[in-house]
Amino acid sequence: MAGYDARLTTPENYRRWALQADGRSPPYAMLAAQVAQDPQVLSFLERLPETRRQPNLLFAAARYLLGRPADLAALRELIAGRPAELTAVMRSHRTQTNEAARCATLLPALCQLPEPLALIEVGASAGLTLLPDVYSYDYAGRQVPGTDPEAPTLRCTPIGPVPLPARTPTVTWRAGIDLNPLDPADAEDARWLQCLVWPAEGDRDERLRGALAAARRHRPVVHRGDLLDDLAGVAAAAPTDATLVVYHSAVLAYVEPKRRAAFAAAVRDVGAHWLSNEAPGVIGPVEPIQAAAGRRSFVLVRDGHEVLAATDSHGTWIAWAD
Predict the structure, then answer these.
(1) How far apart are CA 39 and CA 63, in angstroms?
(2) pTM of the predicted structure, to 2 decimals
(3) Which of 74, 102, 210, 289 matches a 20 to 30 Å C-alpha distance to 155?
(4) What is the β-pairing status of strands 243-249 and 117-122?
(5) How many angstroms separate the first and last alpha carbons of the chain?
(6) How many angstroms separate the CA atoms of 308 and 172, rounded?
């Protein structure tokens, strides 16, 4: 779910987000719809840069300050009584949702590539999705064991002819790039990630805690940098005897279209396979596959043009192309 479309008004953005969140987090869907028609909250948002008005950022910042998910009354009270604090959190933090379950939708594509793998994730946040070999998986009863028995088991419903692997891939090297890397061992960074989890979303809180613990054990390296400017430098450190894979989920929607095109060229220049897991249209003219008709989805694309699957944005299902 992209954060904020500058072509739309703030109320229109919040109404759109409410529709997208409906069925996934009813409390936040209701809150977004209420914000869309609340003069007090809208006035506060209009004082922020457009890049800082996203519903996910506002709601996470409010939770960060309140210690609980906000409703409209709590949000109004926060804006009236602590506007400077709320503004500071929204200006200093980013929507760095690090949903480990997205690994379940990336795994079938990763396992189709020659092993061993060298992984680069752009927009890696705390590196939780840099560990696809570490987690275990449950695809509607089909078990795929990971390398760390203490790591969470990620559950994902396969739809269509998903090429489910028998095991996780061999990964010999991994690195992330992020403008503001988060440290899974840092209590405040972990708390911010927990604030980005929406209420009434099942076991996401528990899964995040388990993924953070796995990341503390395995310590994936996440470099502070820009996905375009620093990709070549990070890629140069990858072992030459491994298949280099560059991937991302829900990242390029926050990048200007011209830089998206330049990033695609940069991936080709480093000789990597490219897995993009983004909303339709983000990387170009690719469409959701028919197997996911009626579902709001991301599109899993290989090398910028080959549509592999439609995926749930938080990894709960994958619909493979026929």
Answers:
(1) 21
(2) 0.91
(3) 289
(4) parallel
(5) 25
(6) 25
The rounded distance, in Å, linking the Cα atoms of 301 and 106 is 10
Per the CB < 8 A criterion, the answer to whether 291 and 322 are in contact is: yes
132, 107 Cβ separation under 8 angstroms: yes
Residues 246 and 119 grouped into a single domain: yes
Encode the chain (322 residues) as per-residue pLDDT tens digits. 456 777 889 999 999 999 988 888 999 999 999 999 999 999 999 999 998 999 999 999 999 999 999 999 999 999 999 999 999 999 999 988 899 999 999 999 999 999 999 999 999 999 999 999 999 999 999 999 999 999 999 999 999 999 999 999 999 999 999 999 999 999 999 999 999 999 988 789 999 999 999 999 999 999 999 999 999 999 999 999 999 999 999 999 889 889 999 999 999 999 999 999 998 888 876 555 544 445 568 999 999 999 999 999 889 999 998 7
Domain span including residue 126: 100-320
> Are residues 79 and 112 located together in one domain of the fold?
no
> How large is the C-alpha radius of gyration of the chain?
19
Rounded Cα distance, 197 and 37, in Å = 24
258 secondary structure, DSSP code: H
Within this chain, do residues 67 and 109 fall inside the same structural domain, yes or no?
Answer: no
Number of domains into which the chain is organized: 2
Ranges of H-type helices in the chain: 10-21, 26-35, 39-46, 55-66, 72-81, 83-92, 103-110, 187-195, 204-218, 231-235, 257-269
User: Are the beta carbons of 154 and 137 closer than 8 angstroms?
Assistant: yes
